[in-house]
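Q: what sequence does this backbone want?
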C-alpha cells in the first residue's frame, strides 16, 4: 500500500499525523505529507483510518 496527500486539498488539520505518525508528517508550511515508500504492513490499519478520518479527504491510496 502506498498513499499520497493532495496538497491542494490538505488544510493542515494534522489528523493523519495524530493517527499514524509513522507514515505522515507535516511540512514546514504545516501541511501533511506521506512517506514516499510502501506503508509498512503493521501501519496499514492506522493509515486506512487516517484516510477515512481526513476532514478534507486529501489522502489517497496509490
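A:
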Amino acid at each position: 500500500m502506498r498513499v499520497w496527500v493532495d496538497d491542494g486539498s490538505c488544510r493542515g488539520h494534522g489528523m493523519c499525523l495524530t493517527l499514524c505518525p509513522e507514515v505522515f508528517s507535516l511540512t514546514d508550511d504545516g501541511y501533511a505529507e506521506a512517506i514516499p515508500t510502501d506503508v509498512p504492513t503493521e501501519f496499514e490499519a492506522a493509515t486506512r483510518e487516517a484516510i477515512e478520518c481526513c476532514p478534507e479527504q486529501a489522502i489517497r491510496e496509490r
